[in-house]
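Justification of computing resources. Each target in the renewal requires a structure prediction run like the one illustrated here; the chain below, 695 residues long, is used simply to show the kind of job we budget for.
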Amino acid sequence: MGDSILDMYLYETNTLLEQLDGILLTAEQADTFSEDSVNEIFRIMHTIKGSSAMMEFSSLMTVAHRIEDMFFIVREKGMDVVPEQTKPELFDMLFQAVDFFRGEIEKVENGDPLSQSIDHIVNKINSLIDKIQGNPAAPAANASAPAENASAPAAAEASAPAISAVNQDYPFGIHVFFDEGSGMENLRAFMLVNSVKDYCGDFITYPDNVETDPSTSDIIADQGFLLWFRTAEERDNATHAMNGAGSVREYQPVDAARPAPAPTQAPKDETPAPAAQAPKAEAPAAKPAPAPAPAAGQQHAKESLISVNLSKLDQLLAVVSEIVITESMVTASPDLKGLRLDNFTKSARDLRKLTDDLQDVSMSLRMVPVSGTFQKMNRIVRDMSKKLGKRAKLTLIGEDTEVDKTIVDAIGDPIMHIVRNSMDHGLEEKESDRVAAGKDPVGEVILAARHTGSEVIIEIKDDGQGVDLQAVLNKAIRQGLAQQDHEYSQKEILNFLMMPGFSTNTEVTEYSGRGVGMDVVKKNVADVGGTVSITSEWGKGMTTTLKIPLTMAIMDGMEVSVGGSMFTIPINSIQSSLKVAAKDVIHDPARGEMVKIRDNFYPIIRAKELFQMDKGYENIEDGILMWVESGEHSYCLFVDELLGEQQIVVKPLPNYVNSFGVKNYGITGCSILGDGSISIILDVINVYTAAHNIF
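Resulting structure tokens:
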């Protein structure tokens, strides 16, 4: 149970921090917070405070609590209360707070102890609160006159018992005491009033001018705060707000005609039960008391979404995969050979349709938009702009494109690294250079995603200076990766950027020059079955393209055989299959073979030779050519027979098999067929690479 609560806490907090990052980036660009943004930040901090208290993560709770206090002031008095010269400091502090929260969450995920010393960030927040409160803003000045008038009766009644100061129409009260030394008691009382409005709209308070008169803090600290209701039922409803309210030490129901009963200890933020309710109890306080109908509607919207542990989806997909295999085994059973079974055939077709539907649904459950990963790059661009002194903007295209969750998680780091490269290497150091080249002084990084059938194309473009091909080639020669007297194409030179340890930076900075570069990007993308390619135009910019499969679990494949062994070629890589005569094959001087298809020449790769098999056809007329294409490569694979299309479940190869480097030969996995036999799944790109390294 504890683990599931922790998982929910981590999921919720990470989601809130992503929202907060987006709000802050938008606000910084506008150089102010909108009313909605202030309310949203207040709500996010309140939720993090409550849930962190429930989990007993005191460092997170304390920082969230202080930011919540700050935004309570801003919410009540408006952005005018923040001095203009303080705004950059406010934005920087909030970004630091997000980083602090993320760092603490990472410690929780890794099982490390949380930070004990948070004085640095708390002092920053307190300093900003002092600056905000010390600013003579218009609303505070206007409020001073009524506050003086109101303070007179308050002072007169201060010596008398507060319980006697009751309106006869509101005889049912709650006496509230805040934590000793909590400070700003008047604002805490006003926060409580807003929370109570969610449960009861008609009540009065003593003191009644807490939002405008800071001097009421002393009265509340000394005598407590009173809320009076018309009926006992309304009072009972209002106690729900007490349970979730921060800083409430205790509260007790009081009655104008009866002595007060024993006080009820208010559950503090640190105790599990109320803190769990905290987000629900006070979250709407960020807005005026909502009407019942919208609140009910919002609740329905929340209930229509549930978060599911990814491991459960993995289990579901594993079961569906086994169903697909078993269904193939039943319909392809050798016991059925030669029998005329019309009813069985019809039922088998229906079963295939249902398994297809089941598979589609289970796959769709795992599909998530890339927007979460894309949005995080806004923060990278913002931070690097400030640290490198380069003005830049990030443009997002196609962020609603959906990809398998495991793939989204795997491509986050590669995309981040490429965006950092664009900021550090790509964009010009001086704006004057951009202006001289006829460009916008503000650099642009474009992050785009789109679907193409069974794969997703992600492009990271910048409008910077591009890659200096000669500099890259010179470095490749120095590192022994290239030969001095060899002519290299632009593409070959750019591929050096993805070699291990290759970095064009001459010095180590916070972001690059450590020798861990595009080779790691290439490896991470290859781990999920994707490819990376780079294009560049000097003076115009650079584009890095990631081609990634939508999913890696189930796919449509074409079964072929070579010497009695079966192989699967992904359907989306196949252009066509064709028979050719020996006279149509062209031989080049290097013993290679080529065939002409639609006015283009394509190399022939013989699977039997590539995999060094004993059996298999030698004569080109006996077998069949599979014209395949993936990424930049297009060629014809020569096999013995075409067996037919099959929906297959991709199974990873065992580690001891992978240790022999079979992936370098184009073997990416395997699948179990309906008759129980194993088929090797071929990776079209690596087959080409392997063949050209061998021959």
